[in-house]
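Exam prep: given the inputs below (a chain plus phosphoribosyl ATP), describe the expected output before reading on.
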Amino acid sequence: MQQQTARIKIAVQKSGRLTDHSLELLSRCGLSYSKGRDQLICYGENMPVDVLLVRDDDIPSLVQEDICDLGIVGLNVVEEYRLGIGTADASAVFRQVSLLDFGHCRLSFGVPDGTSFEGSVSLAGKRIATSYPRILKDYLQREGVDATVVEFSGAVEIAPSLGKADLICDLVSSGSTLRANQLYEAQTILESRAALIQTPVQVPEEKAVWIKRLLQRIEGVQQVRESKYIVLHAPRSALDAIRALLPGSEAPTIMPLDGRDDKVALHAVCRENVFWETLEQLKEAGASSILVLPVEKMLA
Ligand code: PRT
Ligand code: ZN
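Solution:
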């Protein structure tokens, strides 16, 4: 029973756009799990971490009410929830919000093709369909615009053709859904991506240790995705020029080369992707034997 209370619960979307990315992130943090019979809980086998599979809209309240210690959810859902609570400060609702590198989208106005849009003036007196009424109302209030918000729980993009709204305010990623419904993206009011949120409630020490470890690993996984390990030979005289070309790298390691006083080996971790153009520039600056290797794990 003692062991039971010390387990960390992390809420993840059950079935949707964030599900695979969220579970893959946890797997890359070293978590292996078995699914419960009800398919709603994944029990961590090698860490005291269990994953609750729920609708994304339920994740903010599960975390805020300390039923789950952590949650992975879109910033759009976090913001809609936060505005419902009526607290201006996100940290008062969730202990920590860190951004993840998936689930990118934006909440934008979608306007029927052939209709002009000139910012807030074009919204005045209009009916706007959305699934994010609080974010939209907050935006309209800040802009001082008087418009009618029409709530839709899904398929917002068909509202104008049904005659239920003049324009929409919906999530967009590729934009193809807007185009398929003869709408165009006129203006973005919120940039969103998946975020990790943590309960505002103080957790017991034995849990805190594992939460800290998990957060560190999540950060490590995120950094590793773009990071590369670069190895090259360089004339000593060209070192400054070569260093300046390495994308997102901190102090590289410089090592002597056997029997060569004029040349050194340079090893560096680049926290950004290394493209062919960079390799060509490094070569032009005098580098040779250039290797770019993927980074498997990283702990800052
Ligand atoms: O069942 P549950 O409530 O858990 O899921 P859901 O249906 O509410 O959410 P889901 O799975 O659709 O999305 C989960 C999260 O993914 C969202 O809250 C966003 O944070 C993020 N996300 C990223 C998106 C999109 N991209 C996206 N494109 N959520 C929705 N869309 C919609 C968009 O509204 C449009 O209708 O996908 C459609 C296609 O978009 P285009 O522009 O690529 O055509
Ligand atoms: Zn949802």
